[in-house]
Amino acid sequence: MARVVVDVMLKPEILDPQGQAIAQALPRLGFGGVADVRAGKHFVLDVDDDVSEQAVREIADTLLANPVIEDFEVRAE
Amino acid sequence: MTTVGARVGARVGARVGARVGARVGIVTFPGSLDDRDAMRAVRVAGAEPVSLWHGDADLHDVDAVIVPGGFSYGDYLRAGAIARFAPVMGPLVVAAREGMPVLGICNGFQVLCETHLLPGALVRNVAQRFICRDVPLVVDNAATAWTSAYENGQHIVVPIKNIDGCFVGSKRLLDELEATGRVVVRYADGAPNGSMRDIAGVCNETGTIVGMMPHPEHAIDDLTGPGVGGLGFFTSLVSRLVDA
């Protein structure tokens, strides 16, 4: 078994209302100095050893991310 | 065995013989909410609604399909992301690419975008809130399979009820949609959900596949909706199918 991580983020040009809401909440909580927040999704996959990185990229591209609005990164842990 | 054969034969015979109206399939996913209202709208418009089950990879000889609103599969991952892989979507995508009219309403619009039958994507409303209200719309393209009963520029009032209703796309895509008449309806008083260029609904290149966030099936009679402004989507389809 290998552990593979897929991080999915909205593309930079896509507005992220969730990240904005977090950024706006921070000063109210007394945390200063945070200029911007982008929120994304973090997937942890336990895969058989014979599953290639290419296969995981296909999983990310097909289901975990919507390539129209999101970018993803795949890395082994 | 003979009974089954005879029954199937009788059913087919009866259908062919009695086929006067169009058959419109309405998909039910786990979490669909508006399939019943969509069926009623189809009936009011003069066609026969046919219930299609998400787990059944068969369109049962329908002439068109409506993918209704709701929260298919709980909207897990992204709205429409799981529904896209439901067994019924296999034959639906093939038929849609071959020209069968398909209307995606709200969650159904999200499903059609996830399936890439329609361009762009729907993301969280800018205000991060669920919005449920009647909104004025302008029909931008009255030449699609689902809007021929309207006129270009016609104003109608139809309810929206969504939290992931903000239509987004690249500048290039939005320019292309506008230049080629593929914006079907727009929010007349600004998009309450933040949709780019006030886009409420779009279509494919040939105008057979339409997706929209507002719910025309909730605006088909004065008693239960803000008027009858939504009925035209269904009567457009019926006249197209009957004329065909």
What can you see in these coordinates?
The complex is a heterodimer of chains A (77) and B (244). Chain A is an alpha+beta fold and 77 residues long. In chain A, 31% of the residues lie in helices and 31% in strands. The radius of gyration of chain A is 16 Å and the shape is elongated. With 244 residues, chain B is of the alpha/beta class. Chain B has a single domain (21-243), classed as Rossmann fold. Mean pLDDT of chain B is 91; it is low at 1-19. The chains are: A alpha+beta (77), B alpha/beta (244). Chain A binds chain B through residues 10, 13-15, 17-18, 21, 63-64, 66, 68-69, and chain B through 77-78, 81, 85, 113-114, 116, 119-121, 123-128, 166, 168-170, 194.
Please outline what is shown here.
The complex is a heterodimer of chains A (77) and B (244). Chain A is α+β, with helices and mostly antiparallel strands and 77 residues long. Chain A has helices spanning 17-28, 53-64, and strands spanning 2-10, 40-47, 70-76.
Unreliable spans of chain B = 1-19
The value of Rg of chain A in angstroms is 16 Å
Give me the CATH superfamily of chain B.
Class I glutamine amidotransferase (GATase) domain
**CATH class wording of chain A:** Alpha Beta
Full CATH superfamily name of chain A: Phosphoribosylformylglycinamidine synthase subunit PurS
Query: How far apart, in Å, are the first and last alpha carbons of chain B?
Result: 37 Å
Number of strands of chain B: 11
**Structural class estimated from helices and strands of chain A:** alpha+beta
The H/E string of chain B reads HEHEEHEHEEEEHEEEH
Portion of residues in beta strands of chain A equals 25-35%
Task: Assess the beta-strand content of chain B as a share of residues.
Answer: 15-25%
Distance between the termini of chain A: 11 Å
Query: How is the CATH topology of chain A named?
Result: Mth169, Chain: A
Strand order of the largest sheet of chain A: 2-1-3
Oligomer: heterodimer
Biggest interface: chains and residue counts? Answer: A-B, 12 and 21 residues
H and E order of chain A: EHEHE
- Total DSSP helices of chain A: 2
